[in-house]
Amino acid sequence: MSPRVSPLRRGFLNVRETAEYLGLSPDTLYVWRHRRQGPPSFRMGRSGRVMYRIETLDEWIRKQEQEDSRSNASLNPLNAAPQRRAGYSATA
Predict the structure, then answer these.
(1) By the 8 A CB rule, do 16 and 3 touch?
(2) pTM (2 d.p.)
(3) What does the pLDDT read at residue 68?
(4) Are strands 12-14 and 42-44 parallel, antiparallel or unpaired?
(5) What is the 3-state secondary structure (H, E, C) of the chain?
(6) What is the pLDDT of residue 25?
(7) What average pLDDT score do residues 30-42 get?
(8) Torsion angle defined by CA atoms of residues 42, 60, 35 and 23, in that order, rounded to the nearest 10 degrees
(9) What is the distance between the alpha carbons of residues 37 and 35, in angstroms, rounded to a whole number?
(10) Measured between alpha carbons, how far is residue 68 from residues 44, 48, 55, 61, 81 in Å?
């Protein structure tokens, strides 16, 4: 019997391990996969087990941070110049 290799040393995680890694429930990952959302995954082996590459998860997390207006000042609407409504007149 060979010793069990740590998921982090393998370089990929199953759904349960990925949920733990991301701080989510496995059910959330299943829903995201069904809707084609969330981090990229793939099927491995004859059983078609759903797996996630750790490096891809880390890239996905970085992308989420960049697309979030709270983390990216250029996307924050409070940093944008005020816009005027079309057809709006200041005099009534």
Answers:
(1) no
(2) 0.66
(3) 73
(4) unpaired
(5) CCCCCCHHHHCEEEHHHHHHHHCCCHHHHHHHHHCCCCCCCEEECCCCEEEEEHHHHHHHHHHHHHHCCCCCHHHCHHHCCCCCCCCCCCCC
(6) 96
(7) 93
(8) 100
(9) 5
(10) 32, 33, 20, 11, 19
CB atoms within 10 A of CB 52: 24
| Token pair 């941070």 in the structure block, residue | 65
Spatial separation of the C-alpha atoms in residues 75 and 20, rounded to whole Å:
29
Q: Record the tokens describing residue 17, joined without a space.
A: 């391990």
Calculate what percentage of the chain has a pLDDT beyond 90.
Answer: 48
Q: Residues with Cβ < 8 Å from 25, sequence gap 6 or more?
A: 19
Q: How far is CA 31 from CA 34, 53, 72, 77, 88, in A?
A: 5, 18, 27, 30, 44
